[in-house]
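Shift notes (night). Ran Serine decarboxylase while the centrifuge was going.
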Amino acid sequence: MDSILPLSVRGPLPKPVTKSPPPRADSAEDELVSSGVDGASPRATSAAYQALPVSGALITHNYTPALPVLDADELDKEELEARINKVIEDYKEKLQLRTDHHMGYPYNLDFDYGPLEGLQKYCINNLGDPFIESNYGVHSREFEIGVLQWFARLWEIEPHEFWGYITNCGTEGNLHGILVGREMLPDGILYASRETHYSVFKAARMYRMDAVKVGTLESGEIDYDELRSQLAANAARPAIINVNIGTTVKGAVDDLDRVLDILKETGYTEDRFFIHCDGALFGMMIPFVKRAPMVTFKKPIGSISVSGHKFVGSPVPCGVVMTRLRYIKGVSSDVEYLNSRDATIMGSRNGHAPIYMWYTFTRKGYEGLRKDVEKCLRNAHLLKSMLEKAGVKVMLNELSSTVVFERPREEAFVRKWQLACEGDIAHVVVMPNITIRKLETFVQELVESRARVAVSEALRLAEAARERHGDDEEE
Ligand SMILES: Cc1ncc(COP(=O)(O)O)c(C=O)c1O
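Came back to this:
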């Protein structure tokens, strides 16, 4: 059969590379980036999680190696099968190992979707509006709507008053919530705290919105006094406010009621503000925490988003965004080709994700999730106490399971436990898969790592003295 490649691209394929080249320095920020030397930990004033790159050394030294696509034309069938199997088996082993040593990112890796295994042979795609079926029949909208109704009950909004969908991740939920806010209040200014996830400021850049980055308190919450003065100074323009229901690094929860009071004090009526609640991780936990402020549509909020692969746990990244139905008309249009409506950020949407969520919620129920939350908070407090006993400086926000502590100095330790670090701090996000036994191993290895660093620093002093003064045993 004739090749359909244009002549200019015929010929031998380029040789596969086994190591990715370092990224190009495309911007001033990139040029400031330097590699860690000899595996030494790079010192950063901000980290991958934070809103904008800052000057100083950032994280650049763990370049991804490539796994070249095998050459089916050169290998015989049997050899090819054997090679493929080996690659997959090795990869599975690596995944298991990495799963066993994961502490740093807010992912619940404890799930079992065994009965759903046969579904992966279907291309399940919920393209378009979840509430309006497209002509593409291999979808899971019925699961999606069921899950949305589950969330509507959790966040106290009537079934005929909400609109939402299952996203690809928390970021997409933030992009959608802020877009709805911008469409409702086109002249609005976006306010978000400095410790807000970078996706919120990305939305501001994408939608060309004016944004105010508000300072934070020691806990990581928004600085309420600064928010008040910023709102007062810009009172002529509406406000779109991102309220964090658990910040990325410190797990801080902005006080929604206090933000609402500040809006009232500064003269913003409900038609002049829109609040998006970013609850990527903790939005799923807060409803089950006693003493926590309620995040509910009974309060004048515009939207909430969460990630599905974080507290819930899922083999694919996913999330949920919910808003009021009356707002969505402004961001949607009919698409004849879909025979549905376009109101989402993405076109095609992962139809497997709603099934995972449906399955977990059905299996665990609200009570099962409450027990998971309880376990996480208990183990987070245990980890805090263990670290304190071991002489490690540590912080834990009252409502959070994110344990913040001094950044370990050995990069190998950080990599082994997959810790997210920012400047001088690291954190462990205690999820349902983190057991007491795992905490024991982690703390023991951390203490050993710190001791190694301390001994090597002490001996370095002796070495320097020897260089300066010679060995006194020879005197
Ligand atoms: C507070 C917060 N918002 C949004 C996100 C983005 O979520 P995702 O990774 O699901 O896009 C994160 C991720 O960690 C987060 O911590």
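The first strand starts at residue 162 and ends at 167. The chain has three domains: 1-66, 117-364, 368-467.
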